Structure formats: structure tokens, C-alpha cells
Amino acid sequence: MDIGFVGVGVQGAPMVERILGAGFPTTVWARREASTRPFAGRARIAAGAAELGASCDVVGVCVWDDDDVREVVAGRDGLLDGVRPGTVIAVHSTTSPELCRELGAAALDRGCTVVDAPVSGGAERARLGTLVVMVGGDDESVARCRPVFETFGSTIVSTGPLGSGQTVKLINNALFAAQLSLAVDAFRLAEEAGIGKATLGECLSEGSGSSRALRFHAQRVLVEDGPFAPSPIFRKDVELCAGLPGFAGSALLAAARRPL
């Protein structure tokens, strides 16, 4: 099985390393040529997305946002301009569920399919092969992709129809953001009470109030000792949650937006 991968940045590059390490023949392409240089001699470097699509059975896409995914999949000289029938395109980027369904419909016209397969865990867990992969799509396409997903993911969950993987990922990200906002408050309250950051971090990290968000924030405040500054991707993912059914006006969305 020939594998393609579009987008080899902070998240995508270690995923490709795992795919290569498993022995899959792999072709990569990125809009920034410099991103593909570390793979020279180990993977085929495509000249564009359409060329990559013409030579691969499963193609992973790991770029920034909805517009970028739409461009590399369905834009001019995108994957769908070159893809061969039977190919499965796996969207690993965090996007709106609607986009994946839109691309799925366009792909069917070319005789191929789309699955949404966003990942959770970050670059370090990608390097370790322990990402969580949330996969939405038809059973046959998901099964075809599974051996590839198993190279970088230790938890692979079929979530339902196309778009459902993105829904689960966005709920996950909203919950993390909400927990992070509470962690920020917890450290503020401790400081006002005269309790040291290190003391609070040690207690909460092993206490019943612990969470991954709490441990993340504890490490950040103890090492960086600065105000929380959400990244653009953090903001992007939280705002995508606003489009999910039932999220508008929900306590979860309100809490998730607090650090923004």
C-alpha cells in the first residue's frame, strides 16, 4: 500500500516518521518546500498535491484550517485533480464536520472516499506512536486506513459517519480549554491566598482535582512564569466548537472561551 501525506509540520512530520518506520512506501508534499527536505532520500517528494494523489492509496492531510484543507484537497491542482479511484483521503487536521462532509461528496465524484481522522496528543505522542485517532467514515474506508493509523496511534476509535471524528475532537478540545480556564483560576486564587505555585502544583497534580490541563498549566507557570497566552490554533479550535449542534449558549463553550 502506497501512502501519501500532505503537510509535514510540527504535527505531521512525526506522523510521517512513524509511517516510514513501519515500512510503508511514502510520498510527501507540503506548500513550504523546506518542510519536506528532512524526508529526502527516505520518501518520494511530490511536486504538488495532484501528483501525490495520483500515486497513493491512502493520503493523510495535516494542514492548518478549513480553508487550507479545502485548498489542498479540492482546490486547483489539489488531491482531487489527480487522485486515482479507490484512494482514501484521511483528514487529520481539526476542521468543521461540515467541511469533511463537503469534501466527502466531492471525492465520491472522483471514485474515492474521505474519512475524518483528527488526532489528539501532540507531536511528542506522535513520535511515540501513542496518538488518539478519532475516525469518522464508512467502515470499508476506515478499515483500509487502520494499518496506517496504527503506526502513529495507540487508540483508534471509529466514531461513526463522516464528520463524527471532528465532532468528537472538537468536544475534546473544548473540554481541555474549559479545564485549562479553571486551572488558571486555581493558580490565581492560590497566589491570592499566599500559597506558592510549586506547592499548589505538586498537590493538585497528584490530587483528585488533577487533569491533563492542570498538569499542563502547572508546568507552564512554574517554568515560564508568565500570563497564559492561547495559541492561534487553540483559538481556532474553540471557535469551531460554536458551530456544533447545541453548543451555542452551552456552559462548556462559555468555559472554553474564557482563556481567549
From TrEMBL:
One Pfam family in the UniProt entry: NAD_binding_11
Signal peptide: none
6-phosphogluconate dehydrogenase NADP-binding domain mapped to chain residues: 2-159
InterPro entries attached to this UniProt entry: 6-PGluconate_DH-like_C_sf (IPR008927), 6PGD_dom2 (IPR013328), 6PGDH_NADP-bd (IPR006115), HIBADH-like_NADP-bd (IPR029154), HIBADH-related (IPR015815), NAD(P)-bd_dom_sf (IPR036291)
The keyword Lipid biosynthesis is annotated on this UniProt entry: no
Keyword Methyltransferase: no
Coiled coil: none
Superkingdom assignment: Bacteria
Domain named 3-hydroxyisobutyrate dehydrogenase-like NAD-binding: residues: 163-241
Protein family per UniProt: Belongs to the HIBADH-related family.
Protein name: NAD(P)-dependent oxidoreductase
Species assigned in the record: Pseudonocardia ailaonensis
